[in-house]
TrEMBL record:
Family annotation (Pfam families): HMA
Lineage: Bacteria, Pseudomonadati, Bacteroidota, Flavobacteriia, Flavobacteriales
Protein name: HMA domain-containing protein
Signal peptide positions on this chain: 1-18
Domain of life: Bacteria
Keywords: Signal
Domain HMA, chain residue ranges per copy: 22-88
InterPro entries: HMA_dom, HMA_dom_sf
Amino acid sequence: MRTLMIVFGLLLTSLAYGQEKKPQIVIQTSAECGQCKDRVEEKLNYTSGIIFAELDVPTKQLTVKYKANKITADEIRKILSDLGYDADGVKADPEAVAKLPLCCQPGGMDGHEH
């Protein structure tokens, strides 16, 4: 019986260590509207290593769950910058911002519905 308990304990330990870490982060973005939400979520949800990405437009907060052994939080912020959005302290790539529709550029909404 004792041997069985030891084997069972080792099995559980190996299963626990075999699990990938799946952290979740919340990134403050410069997203402005529903088009931004679609653009960001589509890009991230089809990026290897990202399990789930959802942008809350009113707060401009992006929640991302990802596989730490496949992608880092800094790489996620870089993807957002390359799309034309600020991501926490990482500023948006100016050329990418210029390619966004006007409503998606900083201050683009200014009270307009989109």
